Amino acid sequence: QVQLLESGGGSVQAGGSLRLSCGVSGYTGSNSYMAWFRQAPGKKREGVAAVDRVGNAFYADSVKGRFTVSKDNAKNTLLLQMDSLKPDDTAMYYCAAVFGSWEGYTIGWKLDKEYRFWGQGTPVTVSS
Question: What pLDDT shows up at residue 33?
Answer without folding.
Answer: 95
